[in-house]
Amino acid sequence: MKKSDITQFPHYFDYYINLNEDLELSTAFCQSLQQLYDLDMQKLNNIGLKVYAQGKWTLNKIIQHITDWERIWCYRTILAVRNEGTIPSGLDYIVMVENSNADQVPLELLISELRSVRLGRKALYETFNDEILASNCRFDDNEMSVLAMGFNIIGHQIHHFHIIEERYFPLSRE
Question: Who has the most CB within 10 Å: 8, 22, 131, 151?
Fold first, then answer.
């Protein structure tokens, strides 16, 4: 199914979902993986733990955040598609970032972890038929289709990678 097959999603998540092209979800997952493999590690390593403004996250923390939230959204999706019945509550992403040790982990390892998580997510979504993709995933006070959740996961990476390109890559020249 394509992004244009999404019928509903919470207003807050429309930003992430709409960062995707109107592709088949499997193609979007492949492109997101390719983006991870195409990262310019030399440029990223030159940035190191620099931030573009006080209080902003390092690259390490951004990558850890993307990985953490992909896992969380997968958990929410699994509960929904398996009709478990639990509606997961909201979580505080800022607390999670503050309590990670991402800055003590080599960036290459964090990116490798994200690639592995993304491969697992792609494989999971490949097992879903159209009926499952169209089913609803409820969490906190939100509801969206499983298909929308897949595009949300990918759009979240696109969002953060735009920030890295716009605000962090200039730091590699300093």
Answer: 151
Query: Can you point out the beta strands (E) in 100-150?
Result: 136-139, 142-145
pTM: 0.95
Cα gap 95→169, rounded to integer Å: 26
CB of 3 closer than 8 Å to CB of 21: yes
- Sign of the Cα pseudo-torsion (123, 4, 31, 161, in order): negative
- For residue range 41-95, list pLDDT tens digits in order: 999 999 999 999 999 999 999 999 999 999 999 999 999 999 998 898 889 899 9
**Residue in this structure with the two tokens 């009709």, named with its chain if needed:** 83
Pair of tokens at residue 3:
């992004």
Cβ within 8 Å of residue 59, ≥6 positions away = 44, 47, 48, 49, 107, 164, 168
Nearest alpha-carbon partner for 40 in 122, 107, 121:
107
How many Cβ atoms from other residues are within 10 Å of residue 170's Cβ? 11
Classify residue 155 by burial, with Cβ atoms within 10 Å: 0-12, 13-18, 19+.
Answer: buried
Over pLDDT 90: what percentage of the chain?
A: 89
Q: Output the pLDDT for position 51.
A: 97
